[in-house]
Design goal:
The chain is about 30% helix and about 25% strand. It binds zinc ion.
Amino acid sequence: MKTLIKNGTIVTATDEFQADILVDGEKISAIGLNLSENVDRVIDAAGKYVMPGGVDSHCHFEALNTDGVTYNGDFNTSYVCLLGGTTTIVDMAFNEHDEDGNFLNLVDSCNYRLNTRIKGKLAPDIALHACCTNYTEETKSELPKLVEMGIPSLKLFLCFKGTEMYADDMALLNCLEAAGKCGMFVLVHAENSDVLDKYRNEAAAAGHFEPKYQYYTRPEFGEAECVSRAIRFADQARCPINICHVSCIEAGEEIRKAKEEGKAVIGEACTAWLTLDWHLMDNPDWRVASHFVCSPPLRDQEDRDYLWNALNKGTISLIGSDNSMTNQEQKDTGWDEENKHCDFRKIPNGCPGAGDRMHVIWTYGVEAGRINRKKYVEACCTTPAKLNGLYPRKGAIAVGSDADIAILDPEYRGTFSVETNPSGVEYSIFEGMEQKGRFETVLLRGKVVVENAKYVGTPGEGQFIPGKPYGLAYDLLEK
Ligand SMILES: [Zn+2]
């Protein structure tokens, strides 16, 4: 099967130019002017931007909810990524439970995800972060095995103390040391657990349970302190570290200063924190407000302005979605039936957004003049691919790369809505916001999977793409 994409404007992380792309089988086989060849299909991309398919380095599909029973974001919904121009997700492979409720180790959990959870369902391609939700003595000895499997990254939660997800300072340091020895990088959710527990307890004691207390009880300094500590530990252990979903100026400044000192740190911003305001949690209908409950919390306009600038300055390197398809029924577990009020502490944290990421960032980043098109491709496609050891197979328009190609119509005008932009659940956190530009055609390894902005692929055709160790973050380590 050969496909020729003609007359489009190709945008990469470094260039923008007019050229045709020849796709042969699953790969890009030629890029040039006026390519003509006997092909099975011609796609006319005149007036469109032709970009590498997006790589979303921060996704939670089929993750256990805080109720400890239900899972969010069945892989059946992963087609929404393709509609939104994302062709590869890097999913968080949590420690699974066996039938008796005992934790599986990370190697077995990753295998379970790849051999069972995604089967017959996965629409885009997938890579994995091993996501430690049950740190044990065994964890650090598993890391070389994970690298061999093509999983060169480990995620740790430095908040949620009192749950099995929580990684304390010793776990963090042990994991960083072991990861640095085998070419893995470590990702962290950085919020000081004691700081937020203090404010959460105080709010509850004073009778404050509304969703907006998610914002009041997770102060910026608690995030910044944890970011600073994680960076220091990583530097000591000589392991690169990725700070997930940076939400505020104070945390960003810790990253900026550390980078100036030559420390190997990568900052990630996520769609919701770049575009949404914490006052959305002040909706009089607590069930609507609950859609926006995530951690760290949404913050202020000045924080969002800072994050966009930080992308341009290189303090923040990539944009993920932190997709967590928590449906309404799961969000409703925030209701305290005994006391007849919602309790922000019980609302499952997390928002859907894997399908919206590229469209929202195009509209509110590129169209709003905050970042240019090359920065968009860099932050949404190329840097995440490099970080996860997937480049140049993914994240590039280059001869020999996988033909993951997203073609955007910049003239499209619409409104974000769960009807037109499915999120995988009943609601969209971007509902009612203006949309500029839309992916009309998307190819996954040479096959058209989105046509006229409709999904035309086959669930189950997404593949696991092993990542190589010693990725982008290791370039930052001083030799
Ligand atoms: Zn996350």
